[in-house]
Design goal:
The protein is mainly beta. It is built from no helices and 20 strands. It folds into 2 domains: 91 residues, no CATH class; 89 residues, Beta Barrel (Thrombin, subunit H), CATH 2.40.10. The chain is globular, with a radius of gyration of 17 Å.
């Protein structure tokens, strides 16, 4: 949801970021970078200033809508709130999920490469002065891939994995695991962070955090 409570979408098939208006119309926000089609936007967040940040790996170029890759990189992008030009903030190896720390000074991005020398990890980057700095490994999940994730008010990062949802403190230390019957793909909190919603395949789980 953006700052006006409109739903913003990553679309693999259309290779674009779109927004659902309150009257039901779907509005194209961006589909190209420097004249070339995006790969297949995968995950996004809306910062407090209204900027839309999203990852653009090539997963959707293979399915459901195979197509040629026009860009020679896999970027993490920022779409300014004033409608300015799309900005490529960093290039990563198959960037996937992303989230900010509570103060929005640290951006977390999962990298989920397919083959090659790279290993799946959650990467941290400092955000200040209009750029990302100090790229570093933040955490590695014990099983499977870190797909989607979210960050709570105290700065703990809750990441999907092959075993369930892994919980890391702000230093990247594993605090615990919320096991799921099969691989978790994403998770998010309700508005007051009393419940955690977890997706996996065709399943949606609900965890009551007050118990």
């Amino acid at each position: 949801m953006d700052t006006q409570q409109r739903l913003v979408h990553c679309e693999h098939g259309h290779r674009a970021i779109t927004r659902s208006e309150v009257d039901g119309r779907v509005h194209l926000l961006v589909g190209r970078f420097e004249g070339k089609r995006l790969n297949s936007p995968n995950d996004l967040i809306v910062a407090r200033d209204g900027a839309i940040w999203f990852t653009d790996p090539p997963f959707g170029l293979r399915k459901p809508s195979p197509g040629p890759q026009e860009l020679d990189h896999h970027g993490v992008y920022r779409l300014p709130p004033d409608g300015g030009a799309l900005q490529c903030m960093v290039n990563l190896d198959h960037p996937n999920g992303l989230a900010f720390s509570p103060d929005e000074r640290v951006l977390y991005v999962s990298q989920t490469p397919e083959g090659g020398p790279g290993a799946p990890e959650i990467t941290a980057l400092d955000w200040h002065d209009g750029a990302l700095h100090n790229r570093r490994r933040f955490a590695v999940v014990p099983e499977g891939l870190p797909d989607g994730f979210c960050v709570d008010r105290q700065g703990w990062l809750w990441s999907s994995s092959g075993a369930g949802v892994c919980v890391f403190d702000s230093g990247g230390h594993l605090l615990g695991l919320v096991p799921t019957p099969h691989t978790a793909s994403n998770c998010t909190f309700d508005l007051v962070q009393r419940r955690l919603f977890i997706t996996g395949g065709s399943t949606l789980w609900l965890l009551d955090l007050q118990r």
